[in-house]
Design brief:
Blueprint (H helix, E strand, L loop, with lengths): L2 E5 L2 E5 L5 E4 L9 H26 L2 H8 L5 H18 L2 H15 L3 H16 L3 H16 L7
Antiparallel strand pairs: 1-2, 2-3
Length: 153
């Protein structure tokens, strides 16, 4: 049985009862600063876009009434279709399930793409009514940074 404890970039590996080996070569999973900034800006952009979609499109009573009565212009027809697709997605917990699945996979195999997908879909899910699953996904995504990237087993 091998147990690894990680504290401040130093790992204590317990291999056999009574045997303790210090291993200083285990690095925590990190994201380069520029990539982290791009991911942060993308998450904030998605958050702002979904806020606009929620309050200007989905919860707008006048617009929703125009979409249900089918008295729309051709430019509004696209927005009505977008509203219907968004309602279908958040009623089926798409954003929350996607965020939870990608954050769980990112803990298992750390990847910048999976963490970015988890945070982007969690931002959309937090705004578009999938708060429980999306908040859990954000908490799990934080654990992906605590996992060592090159742990030897």
């Amino acid at each position: 049985m091998v147990v690894t404890l990680i504290c401040n970039s130093m790992a204590v590996v317990l291999r056999e009862p009574g045997e303790v080996v210090l291993d200083q070569h285990i690095q925590a999973f990190t994201v380069p600063a520029r990539l982290a900034a791009r991911i942060t800006l993308t998450v904030l952009g998605v958050f702002g876009l979904t806020l606009w979609l929620r309050y200007a499109v989905i919860e707008n009573q006048v617009f929703a009434a125009a979409c249900t009565t089918r008295v729309t212009l051709s430019t509004e027809a696209v927005t009505c279709g977008l509203m219907n697709v968004l309602i279908l997605l958040f009623n089926n917990y798409f954003f929350g399930i996607l965020a939870l699945a990608s954050s769980t996979l990112s803990v298992w195999r750390p990847s910048v793409f999976l963490i970015a997908l988890a945070l982007i879909s969690a931002a959309a899910g937090l705004v578009l009514y999938n708060t429980g699953l999306s908040a859990t996904a954000v908490a799990i995504s934080v654990l992906a940074f605590a996992r060592p990237s090159g742990a030897k087993q």
